[in-house]
Design a protein that fits this description.
It comes from Bowmanella denitrificans. The chain has about 140 residues and is an alpha+beta fold. The chain is built from 3 helices and 9 strands. The chain has 2 domains: about 60 residues, 2,3-Dihydroxybiphenyl 1,2-Dioxygenase, domain 1, CATH 3.10.180; about 70 residues, Roll (2,3-Dihydroxybiphenyl 1,2-Dioxygenase, domain 1), CATH 3.10.180.10. Strands 5, 6, 7, 8 and 9 form a 5-stranded mixed β-sheet that branches. A 4-stranded mixed β-sheet has the order 1-4-3-2. The longest helix is centred in the middle third of the chain and has 13 residues. It starts with a strand and ends in a 9-residue tail after the last strand.
Length: about 140
């Protein structure tokens, strides 16, 4: 079995968050979705578990961060600069916040950061495959 990551996020409105992530390009896995949690799939190895606050509290007693704080910034690779721009645009029209940090244009890499409905920070990133040095 290949290695996978499951990012668990507390959300205040599960249905709204599912719609937001679907608009960004995530698919829902109904086998791991119910009224308290939703499994949103970015790729075969990257899954985001959206958990209601009550469900979240089954896993930890640590406080849920406020919408205006940041714990981590999670980066997702995109196929092009246009895909990065599109993700930020969709985030903004679906209730998230686009460009929460300055856009990064480094020639070989292009990225823009956004926040979801609960303030979780994501960075859409494109890297030029031709700029990656060959392995020696």
């Amino acid at each position: 079995m290949s290695k996978m990551i499951f990012v668990n996020l507390p959300v205040s409105d599960l249905n709204a968050s599912m719609a937001f992530y679907q608009a960004l390009g995530f698919d829902n896995n109904p086998h791991f979705t119910d009224e308290t949690a939703a499994c949103m799939v970015w790729s075969e190895s990257i899954h985001v578990m959206l958990l209601t606050h009550d469900k979240w509290r089954h896993f930890t007693s640590r406080p849920i961060p406020s919408k205006d704080s940041s714990e981590v910034m999670l980066a997702l690779s995109c196929d092009s600069q246009d895909a990065v721009d599109s993700m930020n645009h969709v985030a903004a029209i679906k209730g998230g916040t686009a460009d929460i940090n300055p856009k990064q244009e480094l020639g070989f890499m292009y990225s823009r950061a956004l926040a979801d409905l609960d303030g979780h920070v994501w960075e859409a990133v494109w890297m030029d495959p031709a700029a990656i040095p060959p392995q020696s």
